[in-house]
Amino acid sequence: MSVGALDGRVVVIDPGHQLGNHNFPRRISRPVPAGGFTKPCNTTGTATDGGYPEATFAWLVSRLVAARLRELGATVRLTRRSNRQDRWGPCVDERGRAGNGTSSRPGADLKLSIHADGSYAAGARGFHVIAPPDRAPWTADIHRPSMRLATSVKAGLLSQRFGVATYTAGGDGIDVRSDLGTLNLSDVPTVMVELGNMSSPSEARVMTSPSGRARYARGLVSGVRRFLG
């Protein structure tokens, strides 16, 4: 796909969490709408055993993805514009509605929420992609295209030699969940991707290296391109 091939496309990138969330416990614990129920505004996210934060990893990968998509002609909107200790949020309801159409602006073509996991299950490693269910009245309208987006993102990550999760999502790398406000409140095709397990020493080495983050970004861009065709 050549430069300019994504002209006219709009992609929302949601870098998971915010570096300073742990400094604002009362604000991030406030309940917000999450799709028929409430959840805390946000969480602190996880980290490698060496202390490298999920928020920083997601931010750096998101910026790489955004830069490449812009080179291809897409309009890219990020749900947060910084990675700072003196900032918090945005809440999951705001993340969930990001990219939805309004009376003055059409909805985005897709939304990609970028995270990493923190499981301590023995041998836990690998990525998984989370899509919304066929659940009226919340996500029934976006379930099918979101599943197609999940399949595309999975293929993109596999193309960069990343393996699917060994500890969740049934072993096929794709999960369907109804408990995530970021998915439930979206009106556009949306997935959340857990790029790997930060508690795995081997995956932590990849996540903390510039070359590793570039590989993750290439896989995600490939997935977006596959979905948009």
Structure description:
- This protein is α/β, with parallel strands linked by helices.
- The protein has helices spanning 25-28, 54-71, 92-97, 143-159, 181-184, 201-207, 210-228; strands at 10-15, 31-33, 38-40, 75-78, 110-117, 128-131, 174-176, 190-197.
- The strands form two sheets. The chain has a six-stranded mixed sheet with strand order 4-1-5-8-6-7.
- Strand 2 and strand 3 form a beta hairpin.
N-C termini distance: 9 Å
Average pLDDT across residues? 97
Amount of beta strand: 15-25%
Largest β-sheet summary: 6 strands, mixed
Low-confidence segments, given as residue ranges, are none
Q: What is the N-to-C succession of helices and strands?
A: EHEEHEHEEHEHEHH
How many β-strands, per DSSP? 8
Class by alpha and beta content: alpha/beta
Tally the helices: what do you get? Answer: 7
Radius of gyration, CA atoms, in whole angstroms: 16 Å
Question: Can you give keywords for this protein?
Answer:
33% helix, 229 residues, single chain, two-stranded antiparallel sheet, six-stranded mixed beta sheet, alpha/beta, 7 helices
Topology:
Layout: E1 10-15, H1 25-28, E2 31-33, E3 38-40, H2 54-71, E4 75-78, H3 92-97, E5 110-117, E6 128-131, H4 143-159, E7 174-176, H5 181-184, E8 190-197, H6 201-207, H7 210-228
Parallel strand pairs: 1-4, 1-5, 5-8, 6-7
Antiparallel strand pairs: 2-3, 6-8
Helix pairs in contact: 2-7, 4-7
